[in-house]
Design goal:
- The structure is a homodimer.
- Chain A has about 270 residues and is of the alpha/beta class.
- Chain A folds into two domains: about 60 residues, no CATH class; about 190 residues, 3-Layer(aba) Sandwich (Rossmann fold).
- Chain A is about 55% helix and about 10% strand.
- Chain A is built from ten helices and five strands; from the N terminus they run ααααβαααβαβαβαβ.
- Chain A has a five-stranded parallel beta sheet with strand order 3-2-1-4-5, with helices on both faces.
- In chain A, strand 4, helix 10 and strand 5 form a beta-alpha-beta unit.
- Chain A starts with a helix and ends in a 9-residue tail after the last strand.
- Chains A, B: InterPro entries: Acid_phosphat_B-like, Acid_phosphatase_pln, APS1/VSP, HAD-like_sf, HAD_sf.
- Chains A, B: Belongs to the APS1/VSP family.
- Chains A, B: This is Acid phosphatase.
Chain lengths: ~270, ~270
């Protein structure tokens, strides 16, 4: 890049000599401004964009490492950054990487023959993608609206997250029991099951949804209680995949937890 | 940028007319190559660099979200990326952000008056920076060498991580007890204390180092046991700051744990 700019600069100098007769005394486009204005502007613009990219990446790291307090929406100045991340290569690279890491771990485990080795999957932003919904709602820029989101859920049109579909196929073929543990309500049980089957998740050993008494509980508590029950039933929770820390933290954690990326929303 | 390139392109075309007599028939620098070669090359180069940046950022996310198995060195293709990250703005932005988040949480806590509220700090890459050492050892590209690292520790020249110094001052002035819990050996107790004092960490309530019987233990186990002891002594572990997940996970976790960035090495 530098060499190109240097070359360009010398060519511009050269050109200005040949153009001098036409423009040298013109006050409309004084020669120094023509040379300097676009470069200075561009440098500042690039610098501001780079600064914003660094700050938004830093924010995203803080989210993924669970360093932030509960947050309701993404920072407005990172709206374009989050959209770029979610719709570009970066999100799918991150998804693939965590799925591959989980798959490698799953393959390394020696399963007992009692059928009690379990892999837990969360549903939203883990097996199913709500990106078509969030694309219409600022990728996390709008405060979460239950009524609107429920309508989207009831359409049953969420696509699969492909890297999770691969992991799901790997762990089922390895002999793990698969439990889907979701914050979705029991009344969305049928449509969720239909949606999952339609996009490739054709079998599961449990699909656990929130009962009416689970609704007031925070996700960490609700999911911990469900994992505690699994342990009481004699299961060993080997792996757990979720996009929220509330899918993974709390009591009865998995031997290995895998945090899928999600900079769009936070569930405590 | 596009406008600059377009302008450059037209100026180059213009120049080529005036330069044609000198170069048109030259086989050393054929004119079309001079115009096309740097642009095509640059696009490919930029695309490769962008791809590498995305992949290495994805790797760094996987590290910070604790998705990777134990790893011994950084990926060789990310060597320049990690160096840029550690020596540029990004690392210090990430440090500042986690420190500010921790400080905000600390201020939100209502401390009891029994002096039993504790904030734990790890030492290496949390209070003290070993960047001068790692700069000489490929920023994580070389396999960790105990002998060489011990020599560095014994110099007692590690600078403070400034954002951690600010957090340390905040939590001490709020009335927290501060416990430094480090994987460093007891035989490095004096030099570690000297180093800490010299760079601004002038007071602590405990400095816990590895005793000979702690040495075979993995860090998660060793640090969990030390936290268990604190709980038995009646302390409440309110906050915990560390650059390794092994500083934060395990038994007797803090109410809030804060993961400082560190893409250079992994301690299980």
């Amino acid at each position: 890049m530098t060499s190109l700019l240097v070359m360009c600069f010398f060519l511009m100098l050269f050109s200005s000599c040949t153009l001098a007769n036409d423009n040298y005394n013109s006050h409309i486009f004084p020669r120094p401004l023509v040379i300097e204005y676009p470069e200075g502007n561009e440098f500042q613009l690039r610098e501001s964009l780079e600064e914003l990219r660094l700050q938004c990446t830093s924010w995203r790291f803080a989210v993924e490492a669970n360093n932030l307090s509960p947050w309701k929406t993404i920072p407005p100045e990172c709206a374009a950054y989050v959209e770029d991340y979610m719709t570009g290569r970066a999100y799918s690279y991150d998804l693939q990487r965590v799925s591959r890491a989980a798959g490698a771990f799953a393959k390394s485990v020696e399963l007992a023959e009692d059928g009690k080795d379990v892999w837990i999957f969360d549903v939203d932003e883990t097996l199913l993608s709500n990106l078509p919904y969030y694309a219409q709602h600022g990728y996390g820029l709008e405060i979460f609206n239950h009524t609107k989101f429920d309508k989207w859920v009831e359409e049953g049109l969420a696509p699969a997250i492909h890297s999770s579909l691969e992991l799901y196929r790997d762990v089922t073929s390895l002999g793990f029991k698969v439990f889907f543990l979701t914050g979705r309500s029991e009344r969305h049980g049928n449509i969720t099951a239909d949606n999952l089957i339609k996009v490739g998740f054709q079998h599961w050993d449990k699909l656990i949804l929130r009962s009416p008494e689970d609704h007031p509980k925070q996700a960490t508590m609700y999911k911990s209680e469900k994992r505690d029950e699994m342990i009481k039933e004699g299961y060993r929770i080997v792996g757990n995949s979720g996009d929220q820390w509330s899918d993974l933290l709390g009591s009865s954690p998995a031997n290995r937890s895998f945090k899928l990326p999600n900079p769009m929303y936070y569930i405590p």
